[in-house]
Amino acid sequence: MEKEKRVDPATVKPGMQCTLSDGSLVEIQEAVGDNVHFRVKYLDSLDNPEIPVGSVGQVPFEELIGEYMGTHAEGLT
Hints:
Shape: globular
Strand content: 35-45%
Distance between the termini: 28 Å
Number of strands: 5
Helix content: under 10%
Number of helices: 0
Largest sheet: 5 strands, antiparallel
CATH class: Mainly Beta
Radius of gyration: 13 Å
Number of domains: 1
């Protein structure tokens, strides 16, 4: 079984859009001083009423599963 790849926290920059392990889409605001969490703004929370779109929160870097590259599918069509 292949190990799930995670985002390398050293490559995460403000403004980067990432998908979280719960499927939410966030924009990175900044790294928090504890070097474990990122402050993020939720762009899509999959209709989760507990996380309003536009809200700001902190997530541990382990929750970042990938950089969102948009819906562009060049080379796949």
